[in-house]
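hiii, so i know i said id send this last week but things got crazy w the move. better late than never?? heres the sequnce for the chain we talked about at the cafe, plus the structure i predicted for it. fair warning i was half asleep when i ran it
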Amino acid sequence: MKLLKPCWIAKEGQPIFSIDIHPDGSRFVTGGQGNDSSGRISIWNMKYILEESCVESSSSPKLLSQMDHHLACVNTVRWSHSGRFLASGGDDKIVIIWEQSPYSQGSSLLGGSNAEYWKVKYTLRRHDGDILDLAWSVGDSFIATASVDNSIIIWNAEKLPEVIKILKGHTGLVKGVIFDPVGKYLASQSDDKTMRLWRTTDWEVDT
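okay and structure toks below
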């Protein structure tokens, strides 16, 4: 195993709270704090991690896109399994679903030029508190979001913004969610010191 620490990712000096690698391995995304009170999502070119000898060019930059649409810190970023969509959630209590535009050039909110343009496809609002984690199910049929409001929301990823179920039962903030590789269960962890296993057939706790 080789440890790499690309200093150019942290050049802005702001905290990074989440990272995810695209399914095809071509890029990765980071989410965290922006320059002000806003959140920041950055999509980076993976080839500069894999090939240290690469020289950056205008046609293939290290930073592919920057999105500053979240009004508060971004806590979680996750690619869909297909790689078509990117989901993000943060302290502004919303989830944003992003889709890459066919247009090659776009502008960030700070006025900079993006090599890739990722547009907002959906904005999901149902949580009453900060969103700490999210997960896509196998086949990208569902999205589960976890919040400090002690709940988990199951979204119909094929008919957004439709909500399938709001899972309640945790008595503390929900810190993490993940689907099993087969898609039969959703696991959640909470500040109430418990882990729960939910069946995806009826969204009840498996006992």
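btw The longest strand covers residues 27-33. thought thatd interest u
miss u guys!!
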